[in-house]
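Recap slide: UBC core domain-containing protein, sequence and predicted structure.
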Amino acid sequence: MINLFKIKGQKKEEAANALNRGTVKKQSAGELRLNKDISELNLPNTTTIAFPNGKDDLMNFEISIRPDEGYYFGGMFTFTFQVSPSYPHEPPKVKCKTKVYHPNIDLEGNVCLNILREDWKPVLNINTIIYGLNLLFSQPNDEDPLNHEAAAVLRENPKLFESNVRRAMSGGYVGQAFFPRCLVGSTAR
């Protein structure tokens, strides 16, 4: 008969030895879940992911989105993700590094996306957020804005909104705000 207590003791001893050698780094539940989420990512062809601090720091990464349609066609927008060790019980903190004229992104880069706030649930994942961010560029929402001025222009004068987006993405002023150029490649329409 197998002595289960002896096997359990050996496993504990092996784990303690591994810790003493410094080869095992204890990962939080959030890191484990994020590892799984990243390994299962199914990014749209408009989106790339980068780890500016290296692959050892999965809790901080960037997503770049290049919309292939709509008002923001031809632009490139980078978002930073900071994931807490309590992920997935709390959503990642997501900021837009690219200054953008958008009803759902303010000039400081805060993002208004319901799944990053009140509608977050632990069953959601990084892929869901990325698809939500892509959706913001194809369907800006003027009903739940962070940039109220942009939302009002989108609602009342879509042609002026499109002109403002183009001016901002080309590197110019919209009202009192200056926007650095974020157009990439050929954007002739």
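The chain has five helices and six strands.
The chain has a mean pLDDT of 89.
(End of recap.)
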